[in-house]
Specification:
- Chains A, B, C, D: Residues 21-40 bind DNA.
- Chains A, B, C, D: This is Transcriptional regulator TetR family.
- The structure is a homotetramer of 179-residue chains.
- Chain A is mainly α and 179 residues long.
- The first copy, chain A, has two domains: 1-40, Arc Repressor Mutant, subunit A; 52-175.
- In chain A, 80% of the residues lie in helices and 0% in strands.
- Chain A has ten helices and no strands.
- The first copy, chain A, has helices at residues 2-19, 22-29, 33-39, 43-66, 71-88, 90-100, 103-106, 112-125, 132-153, 158-175.
- Chains in contact: A-B, C-D.
- At the A-B interface, α1, α9 and α10 of A face α1, α9 and α10 of B.
- Chain A binds a DNA duplex (21 and 21 nucleotides) through α2 and α3.
Chain lengths: 179, 179, 179, 179
DNA sequence: AATGAATGAGCCTTCATTCAT
DNA sequence: AATGAATGAAGGCTCATTCAT
């Protein structure tokens, strides 16, 4: 199961959506196409599993962030985690961001828990913000947008990117929704 | 030609990438598949034409922005244009942003003119910024990310969104690359 | 008309059957596809016209051969003509030989006059041959086979090839159908 | 696999190049189009397989010919084999001879082994011939030309045809390249 | 007569999915 | 449970031919 999901990740990463087909994934995983369908009822299910796997990693990091003493530290930790993760396998991350938006998958990938978690962090980092839910959505979009673009450009300097993302995030928080 | 491109836009908008095939586009345009191929050598060419059409509209706006007296006004105008345009046909805009990233099309869609234009605006709005090219790339990614996400969520309040985008943009500029 | 046929010859020669389509021929001829269809009711008619044009050239040579004093000289002249002509535009000749065999064209290209003429020459060159019709068919096949193969190989030495073809022709005549 | 190739042979035989398409072959073979593509990566590969199947049969005969005591007997055996085989399915043989010449397939069908084998036989049958390679090429063309033409004409008398081919072959050898 | 945009049947090929073994 | 051959709907594209101008 896990090896199939990882195979899916690798195929997506190396071949893009063009080459992302069930037969290729099965081959890469070293299992038969029949076995793949034993574990996943269809291609979309496989994609969802992959998305969930990546999301889970970030979710864990977000939980750690919650443990930070200050709100600011929590948000900074979260940004660092996002940057690091997204840039670790930039192609994969970007492609999954796209896949996540497909209407067929929208219902399958539950983002609410994630969003609430981020909202919590935002709330703690900017307690006086008038619309923390909106802000958390915006911040998520900002980070994702910046990091995907950086990945596309082939940037490798994590620290620099992280600094810029922080500038955007805290700049946004400072200027939006001032109580 | 133009009607085929518009048909392509509509198909992409309503059916997504799944249903975006040349036969569907031809049908929607009310022409035969043969005619479509008389004007566009292939599916990708059609996609590129659509991307260029949308890009051109924004490019025109960017030129207007350059005419603004203050740098800040220019940047604000640009943000407004981006928000308005992207939210006019949100699904289409989002899908084209994705399509633009496809390796096969990367070479076809010349983004450099666009980028330079934005960089010019950024330079004027933040003359003391240490890395205007990087900043313009980041800002483009921020705006695109925020607006795409808003479109996905179904937001309709342009003014509110524009305010938030401004917060992010100017917040980023204020905190990054301070001379 | 003639220019369209020549255009057909050139397209066939340079692009092969793959690229031999009516639009390409019209383009090469510098006329519209509509005009092409004004002169030729269809693609096959165009092909037939081309075959006939090439056959006619050889037919003229065959008539000259008939004027030769000795039968042997007549046959030798004919061989020379065949070799020369076939090797002048080898690709075209080979392709036309193939096209000629297509069932759809078999009825359109009247070979009987040609065959009778050759039979006459053979009869004069080998008066004692028991089956001149069969012989002329065989000889035609031999010459065509040898010259097409030579063309395919890229042979350019006309004299050498002609010598070898003579050897085959006269060798065949000497050993077959001895009265 | 073999049944698909045989289906290809039959389609080619009965419908000619016109009707020789992968769907027709699959239908005739009683398999789905998908299965056909599981065994052959493309239409050309199927054609090549068919050519190779037919070539192999002749190659086997050529090996037998090599075992003959006298050179003359070997050559005669080879001629007989060629005549018999080519006239067994004349249409198929002719069409494959044509297909073999298609530029796209030239590289795929290795003829050198075959040619060397024939050259060996020729060398043994006419040890004093000055240019055995040229001669074997010519003889191959002669035989193919004669037998294809006979097939086209609908000849069925194998013995007669074989006699005439022998006349051409040995006549050619006697008169060309005398040491 | 000439033009060439328009047509659409039909071809090659892919790939998600099934099912007998 | 695993296998992988088989399936066939569907999509990209070509090109002979037509017909309004």
């Amino acid at each position: 199961m896990a090896s199939i999901v990882e195979a899916a990740a690798q195929v997506l990463e190396t071949e893009g959506f063009e080459g992302f087909n069930t037969n290729a994934v099965a081959r890469r995983a070293g299992v038969s196409i029949g076995s793949l369908y034993q574990y996943f009822p269809g291609k979309d299910a496989l994609t969802v599993a992959l998305i969930r796997r990546e999301t889970a990693r970030f979710y864990d990091d977000a939980l750690i962030a919650l443990g930070k003493r200050s709100g600011r530290a929590a948000l900074e930790y979260l940004i660092g985690a996002a940057v690091r993760q997204q840039l670790q396998r930039p192609m994969l991350a970007r492609l999954l961001d796209i896949a996540e938006g497909r209407p067929a998958l929208r219902g399958e990938v539950n983002t609410t828990a994630m969003e609430e978690l981020i909202t919590t962090v935002v709330r703690r980092a900017a307690p006086k913000h008038a619309r923390p839910e909106t802000a958390s959505g915006d911040l998520f979009a900002i980070v994702r947008g910046m990091v995907d673009a950086a990945g596309e450009r082939g940037e490798r300097d994590l620290d620099d990117l992280e600094r810029r993302v922080r500038a955007a995030v805290f700049g946004y928080l400072a200027r939006s929704g001032a109580a």
